[in-house]
Amino acid sequence: MKAIARSLRAYYFEYLCISPLAIFLLVCTFFPIARLISFSFQLPTADSQSGFSLSLIHYQELFSQRAFRQAFGNTIFIAVVSLFLEIILGLALALLLTKNSRIIRFVRPLFILPLAIPTVVVGVIMGYFFSTSGWLNRIFMDMGVLSAPIYWMSGGLPSLCMVALADCWKVTPLVMLILLAGLESIDRTLYKAARIDGAGTWYIFRRITLPLLMPSITAAVIIRGIDAFRIFALPLILMGQNLKVIGTYAYLEYAEFNNPYTAAASAVVLLGMILFAVLVYIRLTGKRGIAAA
Amino acid sequence: MSRFAKPIAVLLVILIFVALFLFPLYILLRVAIGTPEETFSQRPPYLLHEITFAHFKDLLASGKTFFEPLGKSIITALLASAASLLIAIPAAYGISKLDYRLRYILVIFIFVSRMVPEVSIALPIAISFIKFGLFDTIPGLVLAHLIRILPVSCFILVGVFSNIPQELEKQARIDGASRMAALRKVVLPLSMGGIGVAGMFSFLLSWDEFIYASYLCLARPTMPLKMFYYISRGDIFSSATYAAIITIPVLIVTFALQKYLKPDYLAGAIKG
Q: Does the pLDDT of residue B146 top 70, yes or no?
């Protein structure tokens, strides 16, 4: 108690400054989440005034639906595939650019391009790119790689890959920027010393670069992983009802099928998945991870 | 020969990636300024033969259906960025002055709020806003957009304020200025550039926001929603034109402010 009082006296002006933000976050973020969770356990018959009820009926309903189980699987599949590709490509690009600093200056602005395009617009563009008579099929067929078009938008595996690739296009530059910053913070003399000791390129990469880059990679994986779980605009614009992830499932349940209770329950499931990822992140990296990220 | 082989290979790989990043943008431009004949032909040519601004003219001619969403988007973004600065400037200043442990707790607090999926906040908010009469109104949408904007503008501003030497403020205090006066007369004038950047990013984050808008708007859509409406109707030219109009300001500002585009800001975390 004393410590709190002392801290209040020492920092009263700072606390005063922060209070509008704190109040806003409580009222507009944490309170709605509490409401969402209580709402998802509420019986539809209980009126909201009489308050608390604890029923798992909406969750039972949710998991009994094939569409939801599919959305659940789709979310995880898209997250894993896009994350994997983004990290590999981002790392490759970062390694390529960090060694060619003169090229960086010219191409860096171009690499940032996808970041500067709103996600909704990326959805539109990827629609032109992946549609059956779209540009991807066109180019591959002109090059003779494909003899018949791939039906990316027909649902199932091709569509899952399409959403993952679209996300990849938008996000790889961000991953590259995070990893590039990590690479640039590695002490150059380490490489020199290893070279003098006769280490090869692959050995240096595995024994020096990769371990020292690990904090940045973990940060990129978790931050991007969280975003990948809540992917929304791309699947909604590209596939709509035909391929749902949990985010769009929750939206469509509410907006199209007027079913706020299952919408709330699936939003809570999504929240749980993300919370789990955040906890793993903090567990893995500790304070340093947050600071480094 | 082999001395040049490696740099050339590297350059080639980089060029391929650059093409990969540029090409999709070109496709959008093609549809937005191409003639329907070329876009709908069986094998549209790679290079445009004919440029037309007819789609943009159609849009301008459509009057209210275009200007209402445009107005709503601009007003919402202006109000949201003003409100975000009003809340984030003092908050970021306060956070930058706290000791390490307290700052860490607050950063976690903001970090968690940044990680919550929009879908999970939008639903309860939409339900309460219907009750309070904020549904489908600009103030309601501004409030929702602030949820998205505030963490980012706070992170940018904490960085800005941390870079201002403590001594300057101390000096002002010794000369008899109150804390408020020191903040107003010393810290703020020195931070104008950073505050401008935070304001710009706030504007953009509201301008292209889609999820909250889709929960909170019905009769009066914003630009991204209007675009989504044309996509679902299959109107390829209108959606491409809207997409171009939404993208252009974002593209310009992002390129102008490139050097502030550090991964920290975007990733939503912060240096301790």
A: yes
